[in-house]
Amino acid sequence: MRNFLEVCQGEYHETLLLEGLIACYSKLTIEKLMDFCRNYVPRINNWAVCDTFATSIKIRKQDKEKFLEFALSFLPGFEFETRFALVILLSKYLTRENLDLIFDACNKAKGGYYVKMAVAWLLSFCFIEFPQETLQYLKNCSLDDWTYNKALQKIAESNKVDKNTKMQIKTLRRQNTTAAK
């Protein structure tokens, strides 16, 4: 498998995805995984490859802190580099201890539609797990109106949020003055 990774530089959706998945399921050391990511993540050109790759990465317990710091180095970055960091936070680091770090990453994340959607998605999961902390963040955050309102929409669409909370969330909508670009 490693030989494939050395020669494969996927230019098509399927080969790019396959290359990422092979790396995820190979038993790479954390250093080799990070080296692979340094080359691979800037080549990601769509949300499906980004999200599949980020959620498929396996990180050993002893490497979690090191990989977290590495993933955050992609913020702020180009569209799918930023989305990669956000999806890593969602899939690997969604804990109470990391909430301030996650909220800070959401504030720092800049980009177009795919970054804004990743922020909204991440915040909706934060709300499901940690509603009070996330609600407090949302009341004081510096997110643009579109991303903020999309996060509220995602929260309200969740089956894990009760009707009364959904009604409360809908009252927090901002007048939409900025659009996703």
Description:
- The model has no long low-confidence stretch (mean pLDDT 91).
- This protein has one domain (2-170): Leucine-rich Repeat Variant, CATH 1.25.10.
- The protein is mainly α.
- It has helices at residues 2-7, 13-25, 30-40, 47-56, 64-72, 79-92, 99-108, 113-129, 131-140, 145-157, 163-170.
- It has eleven helices and no strands.
Keywords:
181 residues, mainly alpha, Leucine-rich Repeat Variant, 11 helices, 67% helix, globular
- In terms of structural class, how would the helical and strand content be classed? mainly alpha
Helix/strand order: HHHHHHHHHHH
Distance between the termini: 39 Å
Q: How many helices does DSSP assign?
A: 11
What is the residue-mean pLDDT, rounded to a whole number?
91
How would you sum up the major sheet?
A: none
Q: What's the count of strands?
A: 0
Query: Beta-strand level of the residues, as a percent range?
Result: under 5%
How many separate structural domains?
A: 1
Helix content: 55-70%
Gyration radius over CA: 17 Å
Query: Low-confidence stretches at least 5 residues in length (pLDDT < 50)?
Result: none
CATH topology: Leucine-rich Repeat Variant
- Give the CATH architecture: Alpha Horseshoe
The level 1 CATH classification is Mainly Alpha
Question: What characteristic shape results from the CA principal axes?
Answer: globular
Question: Which secondary structure elements does this structure contain, and how are they paired or packed?
Answer:
Blueprint: H1 2-7, H2 13-25, H3 30-40, H4 47-56, H5 64-72, H6 79-92, H7 99-108, H8 113-129, H9 131-140, H10 145-157, H11 163-170
